[in-house]
Amino acid sequence: MNVTIYDVAREANVSMATVSRVVNGNPNVKPSTRKKVLEAIERLGYRPNAVARGLASKKTTTVGVIIPDISSIFFAELARGIEDVATMYKYNIILSNSDQNKEKELHLLNTMLAKQVDGIVFMGGNITEEHVNEFQKSPVPIVLAATIEPNNTIPSVNIDYEQAAFDAVTYLLEKGNKRIAYVTGPADDPINQKKLAGYRRALETRGLPYDEALIIEGDYSYDSGIEAYEKMAELAERPTAVFAGTDEMALGVIHSAQDHGISIPEQLEVVGFDNTRLATMVRPRLTTVVQPMYDIGAVAMRLLTKYMNKENVENHIVVLPHRIEYRESTK
Q1: How far, in Å, CA of 221 to CA of 204, rounded?
Q2: Which residues contact 5 (CB under 8 A, 6 or more apart)?
Q3: Residues 140 and 250 in one domain
Q4: Which InterPro entries does this UniProt record tie to the protein (predicted)?
Q5: Which pLDDT does position 55 carry in this prediction?
C-alpha cells in the first residue's frame, strides 16, 4: 500500500495541512513540528505524489520533452542541455521519442498534456499547419528547439542555418573548389531548405551555376552518407568538395570515398555540420559547422521557464551564434 499524507499526519500527530506545508517548504512551521513531520516521513518512507500536488497547486513541476531520436548524438546533446537547466529550476523531465513521425508527434503532444506537464520543449522536422494549430491550442507554453516553424509564431531557439551553410560553402569556394556537392537531409525539412538556400547563395555570389546532380538527399545517417558518395562516384565530373548536412553523413562520405581510393582532403575536401563528437573520431578529423546543441537545449528550457513563470520575454525567436571548426578534412 502507498503511504499517504494522511498516514504521515497521523504518525506525527499533526494536521494534513501541516504535513503539506513541510513537504512544500513553507517556512510557517515551527522547527520542532517540522522535525517531527520529517521523522515521520522518513519512518514511513512517504513519497509526495506529484500529480496530486499538481492538482492542488495547478503545477506539477514537470516538463515534457519530445525529440525525434534519443539515440542520436545530436539530439542527446540537446536533451542534456534541457535536463541541466530543468534541474537547476527544479523541474522534472518526461522524455519521449517521436521518430519524426507526424502522427506520433501529435499523439505524444496530447499524451504530455494529459500528464499535466507545465510546459513542453519540442524538437521535430517539418512543422505543419496541424502542428501549429495544436501548439496554439495548448494550455501550457511550448518552445521549439533546433526546429523551425515558418511563420515564427511559436517560440523557438535555433542558429541561422542559411548563413551557416553559406559560410561553409564559401570556405570551400575560397579554396578553389568549383564543384561542391551538397549531401542534405530530407528535403521537406525547413532547416534543410535553409541550408540549401545558403549553398545556392554561396555559388551565386561566385557566379557559379547550380547543378541538381550535385544535390544528394540522405536521411541524416552514416549509411546515407556512404550511398551519397556512391552516387558522386558515378558522375562524369566528380566533385572536389562536399558539404554534408550532418557530421554523421559527412563520415559516411569520407569512408566511402576512402574505399574508392580517394585521399581526404587532397582529392576531396569535406565539411560537416553540428560538431558532434563524431567529428573528432574520424581520420582525418572533420571540419564542421559548430551548432551549439547543448546551448540550444539549455536556452530553450530557460525560455520555457520564463513562460511557465509568466516572466517578461523580449525575444520569442532566439538565434544563437555559429562558427566553423577547421580540422584536417579540408586543406
Answers
A1: 29
A2: 16, 19, 20, 23, 46, 48
A3: no
A4: CcpA, HTH_LacI, LacI/GalR-like_sensor, Lambda_DNA-bd_dom_sf, Peripla_BP_I
A5: 47
Question: Which whole number is the average pLDDT over 38-66?
Answer: 75
User: 39: domain CATH number?
Assistant: 1.10.260.40
Please check whether residue 327 lies inside any domain of the structure. Answer: no
Query: pLDDT tens digits for 241-252?
Result: 999 999 999 999
CA angle 247, 242, 179 (to 5 degrees): 165
The DSSP string of 55-101 is: HHHS---EEEEEES-TTSHHHHHHHHHHHHHHHHTT-EEEEEE-TT-
Q: What is the pLDDT of residue 51?
A: 53
pLDDT level of residue 1 (50, 70, 90 thresholds): low
Query: Are 280 and 260 spatial neighbours (Cβ–Cβ below 8 Å)?
Result: no
What's the domain range around 146?
60-159+293-320
Q: Which residue is it, cell 530530407?
A: 186
Q: Which three cell numbers stand for residue 70?
A: 534519443
My answer on whether 106 and 20 are in the same domain is no
Report the distance separating Cα 65 and Cα 236, nearest Å: 46
Q: How many residues does the chain have?
A: 331
Looking at residue 53, its pLDDT comes to 54
Same domain assignment for residues 111 and 141: yes
Report the percent of the chain where pLDDT is more than 90.
67
* CA dihedral angle for residue 191, residue 197, residue 203, residue 206, rounded to 10 degrees: -120
Single out the residue of 102, 94, 158 nearest to residue 120, CA to CA: 94
Higher-pLDDT residue of 316 and 6 is 316
pTM of structure: 0.80
Q: Give the DSSP letter of residue 245.
A: S
Does 328 fall in a domain? Answer: no
